Amino acid sequence: MFPISDSVPRRSAPFMIWALIALNGIVFFLEVNLPPTLAEWLIYHYGLVPARYSDPAWALSVGLSPSDWLPFISNTFLHGGWMHLIGNMWTLWLFGSAVEDRMGPVRFAVFYLVCGILASATHFMFNLSSTVPAIGASGAVSGVMGAYALMFPRARIVFMVPIFFLPYYFEMHAMVYAAGWFVWQFLQGTGGLLAPELGGGIAWWAHIGGFVAGVALIHLFRLPKRRYRPYFHDEGIWGFGPSGERA
């Protein structure tokens, strides 16, 4: 099941979304063109290794500084492969452009970074002894998804499911999708705590922390309705209103 479009109209170009996608792409391009030993060093020093902060003696023994807090944000700009990068950036594009449209680019950038930091902090708290670097923008993107679901709960998300190589399309309310997604992350994260070997290397709690941060912080960052521009009937998709709901 892959989300491909939504029904929320946008008037402003998503400049900050473009900038974030470009920055993530540039960092990944540099990452994959490094020699293997240097690429490993980059991931280990700028990815989030929880044991770096929970066990300073271990961190110093492997050459990591326990007083360097940059990885709590730098890890969100590193990715483990092309599909990891494309999946995160597509989700950011799909949900983030409408959120940026209602926040403005500067507010959105601050919101995105704060969600990324809080997602990293959540991952740290639930994986204190882990020596595996956590990387990826999914925590910050989860915050954007949480904000989208709260701002546009009745918006329609169009999904594509390949069935025997043929695409099948269907719609779902944003809030229904977000709720189901969150429950799945929570179940996987809880299962990972009970049976770490089944975690699959995915930072489930970063997703959960980012999503909760997005829901909790959206009211601090979205523009008040009195400051938002009027809705024009020639924007969006025919038959849908300013919040993506069916008119």
General description of the model:
The chain is mainly α and 247 residues long. It has a domain at 9-154 and 201-225: Up-down Bundle (Rhomboid-like fold). Helices cover 57% and strands 9% of the residues. It has ten helices and three strands, in the order E-H-H-H-H-H-H-H-H-E-E-H-H. The protein has helices at residues 15-32, 36-46, 51-54, 56-61, 71-74, 82-103, 105-126, 138-151, 174-194, 204-221, and strands at 2-6, 156-163, 166-173. A three-stranded antiparallel beta sheet has the order 1-2-3. A hairpin with a 2-residue loop joins strand 2 and strand 3 (166-173). The mean pLDDT is 91.
Descriptive labels:
globular; 247 residues; mainly alpha; Rhomboid-like fold; 57% helix; 3-stranded antiparallel β-sheet; single chain
CATH class of the domain at 9-154 and 201-225: Mainly Alpha
CATH architectural label of the domain at 9-154 and 201-225:
Up-down Bundle
User: Assembly type of the shown chains?
Assistant: single chain
Secondary structural class: mainly alpha
Number of helices: 10
Mean pLDDT: 91
Number of strands: 3
Termini separation comes to: 26 Å
Order of helices and strands: EHHHHHHHHEEHH
- Which stretches are low in confidence, meaning pLDDT under 50 for 5 or more residues running? none
Rg, rounded, reads: 19 Å
Largest sheet: 3 strands, antiparallel
Helicity range of the residues? 55-70%
Q: Globular, elongated, flat, extended or rod-shaped: what is the shape?
A: globular
Strand order of the largest sheet: 1-2-3
CATH topology of the domain at 9-154 and 201-225: Rhomboid-like fold
> How much of the polypeptide forms β-strand, as a percent range?
5-15%
What is the CATH superfamily classification of the domain at 9-154 and 201-225?
A: Rhomboid-like
